Amino acid sequence: MKTRLMIIGVGLILSTFVEGRAESFRNSGLTSTKTEVSNRLVAENLNVVTEDLSEGVKAGLLLMREEEKLAHDLYTAFYDLYEMRIFSNISSSEATHMAAVLLLLNSAGLEDPIKAESGAFNNSELQNAYDKLLNSGKKSLVEALNGGAYVEELDILDLEEQLALTEDESVKSVYSNLLRASRNHLRAFNRVLDNNGVDYKPQLMSQDVFDEIVNGENECGANGNGHGKGHGRGCNK
């Protein structure tokens, strides 16, 4: 049996999905404008079809939905503190990531785990991580940037793990695009830290894997990420 979310045309998906979620997005600190869901990501997921998913894959979707919210809420808080462009640009990208995972949750018939309050999570491990990263980031801009790099490392490792668990094409497509974006975000945070005289050392992944990512070119892919350089331009989603 397949669960289907059949949507025809960009206008229809934007009106039914984005507008339908406007209130929850407002309450969670996300602007609910149509520009949040990029045309390329929407176009690729107009017809989302998820096969029967294993419990592990379902749990992964719930995790990634909240993990993307962690990134969004944290970067939004850091932008409020330091008004540094990289935080506002990447937080906008994370809002798109959240929307992409929500498409999969809806298609699979899963309840959205998101809490409306910014910085609040159902997953206790993510709640603890958010609280620690926020407190650390309040100490200095460098600590905030280090926190951003940590979150992107976490995203990369978790997305790679979840990709290995599923054969579902819709899930794989979304996760692959989010993975490319997270690598771009890690490159961006590392670049800004380097520009501020900080030699960032990976906190979760191996040095070799980290070096391979940050020394690579910004990735566009099918849903290229426009925020990898912190500019919001380039490979637009």
Biggest sheet, strands in spatial order? 1-2
Give the number of helices. 9
**CATH class, anyone?**
Mainly Alpha
First and last CA, distance: 31 Å
Task: Please tally the β strands and state the result.
Answer: 2
The average pLDDT score comes to: 80
Question: What is the count of distinct domains?
Answer: 1
How much helix, percentage-wise, in residues? 55-70%
Summarize the SSE layout with pairings:
Blueprint: E1 3-6, H1 10-18, H2 22-27, H3 39-44, E2 47-50, H4 55-82, H5 85-108, H6 124-137, H7 141-165, H8 169-195, H9 207-214
Antiparallel strand pairs: 1-2
Written overview of the protein:
The chain has 237 residues and is mainly α. It has one domain: Up-down Bundle (Ferritin), CATH 1.20.1260.10. It is built from 9 helices and 2 strands. The chain has helices at 10-18, 22-27, 39-44, 55-82, 85-108, 124-137, 141-165, 169-195, 207-214, and strands spanning 3-6, 47-50. It has a two-stranded antiparallel sheet. The radius of gyration is 17 Å and the shape is globular. Residues 1-40 and 222-234 have low confidence and may be disordered.
